[in-house]
Amino acid sequence: MGNADSVVAQKRLARFRPDERPVIEGIFDRLRGTGSSVSSAKTGRVLSLEMLKMTMGKMASESMIKRVFQGMHSIDPGVPLSPGDGIIHEQLVIFLADILRGTAEERAPLVLAMAEGAKATATTTEQIRDFMEDLVSAAVQTLAHRGHLRAWQPDRMGDEPQGVKLLAEQLTSELKSSDQNMCDIPCLEDWLFRIPAVAMFLELLIGEGLGVGLPSRPPPTLLPLCRYAPWSDLRCLLNIPLLMFLSPQLPAGHSAPWRLLFSTNIHGESFTRLVGNCKSKGQTVMLVKDTKGHIFGGFVSQSWEAKPQFQGDSRCFLFSVFPYMRVFTCTGYNDHYMYLNQGQQTLPNGLGMGGQHGYFGLWLDCDFGHGHSRARPLCTTYGSPQLSGDEDFKVDTVEVWGVGQPPEEQEQDEKKKSILDADPEVQAMLELTGKTLHSQGLREPEEDEG
């Protein structure tokens, strides 16, 4: 960019590494379909809405692309603008810098413009929710189009459009708006600072949607890896937006792979089978759908084990999926995080989380098909309300996913590591043996080998 160009744009461009700056500067001409590098301020060339649609059409709805265009158009680049409503080079550079490298203070005006319009000074929570529906939907579309679903199969999963609406509502509920449900710039700054998911969705959409390939900043990972699921037989309760919401709440976040342990539509309605499949399997996420259509569940931080006392720790939580998406973490009132018992005469037999005997936040009876969620008014352990449609509910579907490395694999890895750490000669011998087997074609090459 020459000396006559925007000082604001030059400062924004300095946020990128020297080898990345030509990439950022070249995006304007690429979107316009030309290889010319002449500055738009000198030629009057602009980027039109139709050009954006051609580039982003497979990753976002028309309404979301219009919002992105509004955000770009709202920027004051510090140089004269071309006549009409096109985007000049400097506006695009500033927009990319603020979305991909900006602060909450810099992103807030862009979010306001995308939600309400270029000249707005405030907007309503309803407008922000509509914006978030478009953004969440675009993030899901982008993951699918770019092949970042990480082995999840949306066609065998739950209601995705419903999940989009529920996640948008959940994120919008975090706004600290005025009594009139109005949001100004400070309100949006606070929201963006506290809720990183909004910036991550924007970064994914803009980075992938406009083809901004930056070596120092790969696309954000929004989903955990699905390590195992029998998709041909499964119709699971999870959907992609729900995974985008739940996995960051877990201790290991997106880095822990998920594997299916139990589903009623595969393993049947058997409490014994449920317990057998889930015991000693490490951290798990359970989802329950009742016959009234409510979907809810819980995360447990330790393996399920049958014993007469409560288990777990403060990392456990309950959550609601439908009719609203929320997470309920521990209150510190008691340590009744998780409970499992079977075949006892004096204690309740079943699986529960939170509350107390007879008044669990979530309870599945050993007589499979029945459960309860008794809050009155809130679960003492997690502060959750009644999660089911009726206090005493009938089960429609139960699904349990193991999260992270299975305990038996973790134990094997730890044993291997302890042997290698204790004896460097053994480590050298194993490496030599591995190379010999590889050279003889008796072992598959490692992933990072050419």
TrEMBL record:
<keyword id="KW-0472">Membrane</keyword>
<protein>
    <recommendedName>
        <fullName>MTOR-associated protein MEAK7</fullName>
    </recommendedName>
</protein>
<dbReference type="GO" id="GO:0006979">
    <property type="term" value="P:response to oxidative stress"/>
</dbReference>
<keyword id="KW-0458">Lysosome</keyword>
<dbReference type="InterPro" id="IPR006571">
    <property type="entry name" value="TLDc_dom"/>
</dbReference>
<dbReference type="GO" id="GO:0005764">
    <property type="term" value="C:lysosome"/>
</dbReference>
<dbReference type="GO" id="GO:0031929">
    <property type="term" value="P:TOR signaling"/>
</dbReference>
<dbReference type="Pfam" id="PF07534">
    <property type="entry name" value="TLD"/>
</dbReference>
<dbReference type="GO" id="GO:0005634">
    <property type="term" value="C:nucleus"/>
</dbReference>
<keyword id="KW-0963">Cytoplasm</keyword>
<feature type="region of interest" description="Disordered">
    <location>
        <begin position="403"/>
        <end position="422"/>
    </location>
</feature>
<feature type="domain" description="TLDc">
    <location>
        <begin position="236"/>
        <end position="404"/>
    </location>
</feature>
<dbReference type="GO" id="GO:0016020">
    <property type="term" value="C:membrane"/>
</dbReference>
